[in-house]
Design goal:
Elements: E1 8-11, H1 12-29, E2 32-37, E3 44-47, H2 49-66, E4 71-79, E5 83-90, H3 122-132, E6 136-142, E7 145-154, E8 160-168, E9 173-181, E10 187-190
Parallel strand pairs: 2-4
Antiparallel strand pairs: 1-3, 4-5, 5-7, 6-7, 8-9, 9-10
Length: about 190
């Protein structure tokens, strides 16, 4: 109950592009290269914009706080069969293997040499907010990136929905369509 949600249906891809745009110049000034691979098509989810911004801001602020240039940062989205996925990756200093299972605990700060005046609550709060949205966050590693945070928003079990907004001419009436992909991999548009 510490993070009451004010849910509204929004395009998560567009929202994430806005967040990245707010950080792009900051990353550039620090000598970080930000690569953004966010799908062009709209993907609508019900989420609390203020709290979701806290999640993404925390992850991006951690990259800024715990690394020095030059590093590569990649933010990408992907629609998978069971979830909508956001990954925030960097090839900076990484997180030690013995710390990885503790980073989502409250007040955990990890290696003191990496920590710059942080409370140790950021990742804990991010996880709490995501769980209230029915999503999950995990720390993973890939060969090219030392730190990969993967956020997954599950799609419904029987109907996975890809929303795309478009306008019909000549009246320009906005419609929302859903591409429903059922268990037997049949698809149909529901407008």
């Amino acid at each position: 109950n510490d993070y009451p949600l004010q849910l509204e249906r929004r395009d998560m891809n567009d929202f994430l592009r806005e967040v990245c745009a707010n950080y792009y110049t900051i990353f550039e000034k620090q000598g970080f290269v930000m690569e953004i691979q966010i799908a062009e098509e709209a993907f609508y989810l019900d989420f609390d914009g203020l709290n979701m911004r806290r999640v993404y801001a925390n992850l991006l602020e951690n990259i800024l706080s715990h690394n020095t240039a030059p590093i590569q940062v990649q933010i990408c989205t992907q629609l998978l069969p069971a979830c909508y996925q956001v990954q925030i990756k960097d090839n900076g200093v990484g997180i030690a293997a013995e710390e990885q299972d503790k980073i989502f605990e409250p007040f955990y700060q990890g290696d003191i040499s990496r920590t710059k005046q942080h409370s140790g609550l950021g990742l804990f709060v991010a996880k709490q907010i995501l769980e209230k949205h029915g999503a999950s966050i995990a720390l993973e590693c890939e060969p090219a990136y030392r730190t990969v945070f993967t956020i997954r928003f599950p799609l419904s079990k029987n109907c996975r929905t890809l929303h795309s907004a478009y306008s019909r001419t000549p009246s320009h009436i906005a419609y929302t369509c859903h591409l429903c992909i059922y268990e037997e991999f049949q698809a149909r548009w529901c407008c």
